[in-house]
Amino acid sequence: MDRITPDSSVLLVVDAQERLAAAMPEEPLARLVRNTRLLLQAAALLDVPVLATEQYPKGLGPTVAPLLELLARGGVTPIDKLCFDASSEPRISRAIRSIAPRSIILVGMEAHVCVFQTARELVRRGHDVHVVSDAVTSRAEEHRVGGLRLAEHAGAVITVAESVVFDWVERAGTETFRAVSKLVR
Q1: Which of 33, 84, 111, 135 is most buried, most CB within 10 Å of its CB?
Q2: Contact partners, residue 66, CB within 8 Å, separation at least 6
Q3: Active site residues
């Protein structure tokens, strides 16, 4: 497994939307928001490209406010979609092709549907996919765990947010390390 580098990765936030969030257990949702914020802030510091999707926003609402705010600061507008696999949405597929990342960092909802199907397809397309287990959730814990197992079986790496950001940073003693360390505290 290669190191995840800022210049060869993209962060993809899948369907972290208000009406989906309302159906999620409170603590797993809070963990998803906290760790996705960490990843978004670190991505901004390290110039890691970010993409985001919203599944049928007319019915499921916009991305949750704390994440939408950070996405907007980075100039990212979520792309609406109807297919469960985010990479099957042509605008996402084109954006990924244009960025040409080796690694795709995947977070969002729901682990056993859109996150899993996106991970499976991105692996099939030849990307190193890293599903961030503490930044994905589902309505039921067994669905989250099942989705993570399916993604891993499909070839994705299951990781955690801090592993990703410190892989991006690579070494201590730098300004970037100090800035990211503050985000983790």
Answers
A1: 111
A2: 33, 37
A3: 15, 81, 114
